[in-house]
Design brief:
The chain is an alpha+beta fold. It is about 40% helix and about 15% strand. Strands 1-2 form a two-stranded antiparallel ribbon. It comes from Deinococcus malanensis.
Amino acid sequence: MLFDAETGALEIVAPTLPGWAEALLTENYWSGWSLGQAWQAQHGPLPLEKRLMPSRLFVLGGKYEVDNLRAVDTVESLRVRGDVARQLRDLPDGTEIELRVLPVE
């Protein structure tokens, strides 16, 4: 199972744990490993409390490239993407949106 933090969608990657592990190791799409490696080559190691997050979320047309990534606090990353997923919930693909970004509490 794969959870997409930007949309809240679940997707079956493989029916078994070994199949899931194989998919992660062989299909770069599922892990983003090469993109993470390229980011670290430019910026150095990613601190343990940080996650790479697209500046423009992928679900909103952000590109899968190093220049669209930034290191953010893990909790902040989940909060922002969760809020976006909540706002996009039940909207058909292609719907024009006005994204509201709420201040950190």
